[in-house]
Amino acid sequence: MPTHLPAPPRALGRSRFVSELQVRPDDIDLFQHVHSSKYLDYVLAARFDQMTRCYGMGMEEFLKIGLGWYQRSVQMEFKRPLRLGEHFTVTTWIEAMDTDTVRVEFEIRRALNQKICCDGRCDYTLVNLATGRAEPIPDWIAEKYAV
Question: Under 8 Å CB-to-CB from 147, ≥6 apart: which residues?
Answer without folding.
Answer: 13, 15, 54, 55
